[in-house]
Design goal:
Aminopeptidase, globular, seven-stranded mixed beta sheet, 174 residues, alpha+beta
């Protein structure tokens, strides 16, 4: 398993790490982050998640190691309180990839969704070309529901997106 990973609320102290994260070509390729990210995007992104915490529409967490070093993000970009459904996502910083960080983030984020946010369904949307993220979803105990074809992602870009989900009643991953 990965090194010790913990989630802490996303805040202004993470802006520098987010600025570096949104400059990563792999992050831009597989996320909804605009290309190129506009000036101040990281600061505005943090502000969006802070506002979402207050109104219940989204939640953001920085993933850090035992010494507090930034490893990536765990996000709930969309929370539907009435349906009790949350879209979840994760981004692992380049230097932390291949160490099990993504799985650790997803497991903690899923636990938060079910135990603290009261979700009855958590789901992921993953580009069909993002094989590493698909492995994280499987190892996190998510079930592949199917593929949404030609989904608009950003700036006129469309892609096929896999939908993965977990329910609180699903077996815990090994």
């Amino acid at each position: 398993m990965a090194e010790a990973v913990r989630l802490e609320r996303l805040g202004a102290r993470h802006v520098d790490e987010l600025t570096a994260l949104v400059a990563d070509p792999d992050v831009l390729r597989f996320t909804r982050i605009p290309e190129p990210a506009p000036p101040g995007f990281a600061r505005d992104w943090v502000a969006r998640y802070e506002a979402g915490e207050r109104d219940g529409s989204c939640a953001g967490f920085a993933a850090v190691d035992g010494s507090g070093a930034f490893l990536g993000l765990g996000l709930a970009p969309s929370i539907d309180a009435e349906a009790r459904e949350l879209e979840l996502g994760y981004i692992v910083a380049r230097e932390a990839r291949g160490r099990g960080v993504g799985v650790a983030v997803l497991r903690q984020l899923t636990h938060w969704a079910f135990e603290h946010a009261g979700a009855l369904r958590a789901y992921l949307q993953i580009d069909t070309a993002n094989v590493a993220s698909q492995r994280i979803a499987e190892r996190g105990g998510y079930v592949l529901e199917g593929v949404l074809r030609s989904v608009h992602v950003k700036q006129g870009r469309r892609m096929d997106v896999m939908v993965w989900s977990r329910l609180p009643s699903d077996p815990q991953p090994r």
